[in-house]
Design a protein that fits this description.
single chain, mainly alpha, Four Helix Bundle (Hemerythrin (Met), subunit A), 73% helix
Length: 128
């Protein structure tokens, strides 16, 4: 995927807009439907994910960028934060790109998805 195509890929989402930022059915496969465990796992993700975003912001090498994007992609998908995972995958594909505009756009898209997911997780905690 070229730099321009990679940057434009952030416009298209695999996960439908309007769907919840967390796929509870996916997460339940790993937690056996234990709601308390789901909340704990989601809160851990919500607390840890901003660190990976900061690692992307400060990545000084292709490896640092790739590692941060890949780690965020995996942890997001593991907890059912598919929109975050999709955007992290697109960021990971930019790893060879020296295009700072494309990387900035990737970080902004990730930040938007993370903010949405973290607010959603916080609302779950308020209901508990």
């Amino acid at each position: 995927m070229g730099v321009v195509a990679g940057a434009l890929a952030f416009e298209a989402e695999t996960v439908e807009r309007g769907s919840p930022p967390i796929d509870h059915a996916h997460l339940a496969c790993y937690t056996f439907g234990n709601k308390a465990l789901e909340l704990e796992v989601l809160q851990l993700f919500a607390n840890q994910a901003p660190e990976y975003l900061e690692q992307l912001r400060s990545a000084a090498s292709e490896k640092e960028w790739r590692d941060a994007a890949h780690t965020l992609k995996g942890s997001a998908r593991a907890v059912g934060a598919m929109r975050v995972g999709d955007r992290a995958e697109r960021a990971e594909a930019l790893r060879a790109s020296p295009d700072t505009v494309a990387r900035s756009r990737a970080i902004a898209a990730l930040e938007e998805a993370l903010d949405e997911a973290r607010a959603y997780v916080a609302s779950l905690g308020d209901r508990a």
